[in-house]
Amino acid sequence: MLNLLRNNFGLKLLSVFLAVAAWAYFHLAAPAITARFDQTFSVPIAVSGLKPGYQAHYTEKVVTVVVEVPRNGPVVRQDQLQAVLDASDLVDPGYHNVQVKLVAPDVAIKSITPASVTLALDRVDERTVPVSIVYAGASTGVVVEAAHVDPGLTTIRGVSGDLRRVSGVRVVIPIPAKPNRLDAMLQPTPIDARGNEIAGVHVSPNLVRVRADFVTPLAPAK
User: What is the rounded distance in angstroms from the CA atom of residue 187 to the CA atom of residue 170?
Assistant: First the structure.
């Protein structure tokens, strides 16, 4: 028996050592290697730090975010992630390439697509413009005796590029079929040099009082 134990004793001792090492690895080291998996989210983009008097536009509205979380750990929720464009250092109107910053819990972020977004920065201005009256429709034997708009001045507000296109603010009065008196609240509209309405420009007040008298024209003297 003793001879059998002494025979190849070194190999037997090595085998025992390897068996103990394997047992220690799988029972002690392996649990420390945590299994992980990926979660993918579509996160809406928001702008932060925009200075007063500015307006931002950007085409991309969401980013795709891939995060790595422990398989046995807590699952990351959609509402825990925020994609932010920091505009606090932007003051010059024009186009800026801004990096997307992800506000998230303590997770490993694998990728953000796109990583940056082109942001168009515009300055918001305002100016005062008088209200003009435009008559719509064909004259049917009546003429305007008097017309008045109250208030006669409006304030237009919008980005600088749009305001430069505004040539005036108008209200449209339909011509009645017979003598009549108009007293109504109408919406003033910003227009360009061709008379087209300019979207995105706000007019204050948004309603003005328009009074007009339509009468029968006097017969020419003989």
Answer: 9
